[in-house]
Amino acid sequence: MYTIPIVVIVLFFMFSHGEKGPSSQNISAENIVLQQVTFDDHEPQQVWVEEVSSRDAQAIFGYITATYRKIPTEEAEAISSALIDSAQELKVDPLFIAALMSRESSFNKMAVSSTGAKGLGQIKDFNYPSLGITDPFDIIQNTRGTMSYIKRMLGRWESESAQASLALASYFKGYGAVSRANKQVDLKTKKYVEDILATYDKIKDYKASL
I want to staple 174 with a disulfide (CB 3.0 to 4.6 A). Which of 10, 21, 69, 209 is the partner? Predict the structure, then answer.
């Protein structure tokens, strides 16, 4: 009778200190394999805006009410308004941030994740001071904080062709983690980014149909 030796290899992945994403998602063992970012084919041409219009607000409101019917109409209106106001100040496409919020919280302003991330953009407590947040469940504060953080990440990847995708990956994992991995992402992060960009396209199509 032959005995086959079994070697158990335990891998510990430890990340050095760096800027964490607002929700600082934990990556499960099945998703730790890194892959090159390959988002360029689907990269949005422009996520910066000089001005926004009533059609942007209508598109966001229409998408929320059509897709998330449990969200009260008055909250959908408040979210749309907060996105437009923040976009006018920060110059990031409000439809892009709406797509992010759709993925993060399904537009539930009271959402709390298992890791403690809160509100529409699922922002964690340690990010509140730098984003000017005192109440993460406040629609205006959370919306502006979410857009401010994404603008910061877009700036970090300004020279990259996959700027928007890398900014989203950094929102999910933290800029330091993505940068240290030489712009490589795990499968879970890649799916996260692709989901948001697909939703962004849907909201833009909704706007085009108005």
Answer: 21
